[in-house]
């Protein structure tokens, strides 16, 4: 049985989608959760759904690096040393190369990659992280490994997370901090639902067919997150776990 009893987990993008579902499951499995996101109202809504006690929120822009670090460090003094982190915050971008400007690439890399690596830098300081090791999980994407037209900038950012995961896993192994990433295909979230609604029926059917087990649910990814956060996965690090309903098997 997977348990997160007495663990303290920090989750970004916790106001909706995969981040929110992961926060709920972590709490149900016994963890205390620190929820990060931009929207204080939606973070509060997620927090009220969590089982257990001791959960806290921090409404912050992850890319306002100095202010975020100052506020997070202060909050950790009362929340306690953390055992795990999930970087679920991110933005999707569909833009062919001829329309892909440097600013577009900068924006997607800043939240998808830089913010997640910076958060790990802050949390893994000796006074912020517990002495017994733990687990860091990044939400990458299957398009970080396989190509898709119009996804050049997005794919590059998610591929960067896969590469960073491997180097971080080696760098933190002596501290018993495991680092892994998860590669979902399309999952039903508010962001993906908006995308699907903008497409023709034929285009939506084609996307469905690309997922042999159907489009995923947020719980499919949150379950994988909690497996990697738990001690059940204590010998797994530096991996890219594919959770894509068969998308990449074709």
Report on the architecture of this protein.
The chain has helices at 17-28, 40-48, 65-79, 102-123, 152-172, 190-197, 201-209, 218-229; strands spanning 8-12, 32-37, 56-59, 84-87, 134-139, 177-184, 240-243. Helices cover 43% and strands 15% of the residues. The chain is of the alpha/beta class. It is built from 8 helices and 7 strands; from the N terminus they run βαβαβαβαβαβαααβ. The chain has one domain (8-243): Rossmann fold. The longest helix has 22 residues, at 102-123. Strand 2 (32-37), helix 2 (40-48) and strand 3 (56-59) form a beta-alpha-beta unit.
Keywords, separated by commas or semicolons:
250 residues, alpha/beta, Rossmann fold, seven-stranded parallel β-sheet, 8 helices, 15% strand
Would you summarize the structure shown here?
The chain has 250 residues and is of the alpha/beta class. The protein has helices at 17-28, 40-48, 65-79, 102-123, 152-172, 190-197, 201-209, 218-229, and strands spanning 8-12, 32-37, 56-59, 84-87, 134-139, 177-184, 240-243. It has a single domain (8-243), classed as Rossmann fold, CATH 3.40.50.
